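To whoever picks this up:

The nightly regression suite flagged Type III-B CRISPR module-associated protein Cmr3 as changed. Nothing in the input moved, so I suspect the structure step. Input below, exactly as stored in the fixture:
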Amino acid sequence: MSTNQKTFRFGAFDTLFFKESRPFESIGGSELSSVFPPPPRTIMGAIRTAIGDAKGVNWAAFSKGSEETREVQDIIGYGDDLGALSLDGIWFSIGSEKQRLYPVPLLLLQKSTDDGSKEFERLQIGKPVTTHLGKVCLPEMPTNKVGYTPLDSDWLTQSGLAKVLAGEKPSAGDVYESKQLFSQESRLGIAIDRQTGAVKDKMLYQSKHIRPVDDLTVEVDISGVPDGLLNKRVLRLGAEGRMSGVELVGTDSVQALPEAPVVAANTKGLILVLLTPAHFSEGSWLPSGFVVNETSEIKHWNGEVAGVNLTLHAAVIGKSQREGGWNVAEHKPRAVESLIPAGSCFYCTVDSGDDIQAAINALHGQTIGNQTELGRGRIVCALWNESEFTGTTL
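Regenerated output under the current build:
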């Protein structure tokens, strides 16, 4: 992460709307949901616009690449070029202490007990089985553990995430359900002709807005924002230009990622956990740079991340996340992309008997894949313990 990183805290005045990838004219006329946390391009668009406004830029001249706007272009870029800016992460924060929340790693499952409390369990990697991919190791539930479901829309506190990374299970107080953070409200709207101000016939639409709870904010880590420009202001955010406040947060009041876990005697390898959605080449589930190795009976994949040579043995991956948006520079919709969702986990061993702790220290907090300037592919490392592998050999 950059040394000139700044953190901005967004707070909604009312509801917010970050439209899903389907267009309004999609077949069936169904209600369109909202994506939350906001997509990175939406956040960067708001920040870039705010910087331009603070600089007093002439947007008409800016769109033509005029030399008089060169200073602003160097800062915020144009189109897909972000200039000097880069996004390092988008996070929820909650409560008076503004503790950060992180997506639950998908290796964790839960079930409700008879007394209403929650029990948590971790997936393990099973013996090799024959699949359409060949003979591979797949994640499975521990023996005699039934009734558990994924936490694919829940969030962990910093301390809860630290426990999971260390090979442990969180407590119930470490986990927030989405319904504890925000509610969804259905809305009915109609298109307006901007030339006449009249409504357009047959242009009704339905959308679902997000209403955050009072003490929920969105924290955004961005590098490259000049000092003194965006200390505190009001801006429009997302679809329908909903009003939001944004303020610069002091570094002493921002929670950092949990520390890298310490390897134990029973550590078999490491687990790369995505904290933000990742974009891999050609829509693949496989991290960029990894290639299949079929020299052994059991299929696995070899690759390098941040200078560390790894062998990937298994993965727990959530449902593909679809993201589109509007290309302001070219006045047209963006092509919809498929992303590997946050929380996905990749089980790896370190090649050539290298030090696992050194590998974890080098990888923890890095990014993988493409579009990392948008904060995609932020990873942390978890411990893969011997007890979470039921086979005899990899």
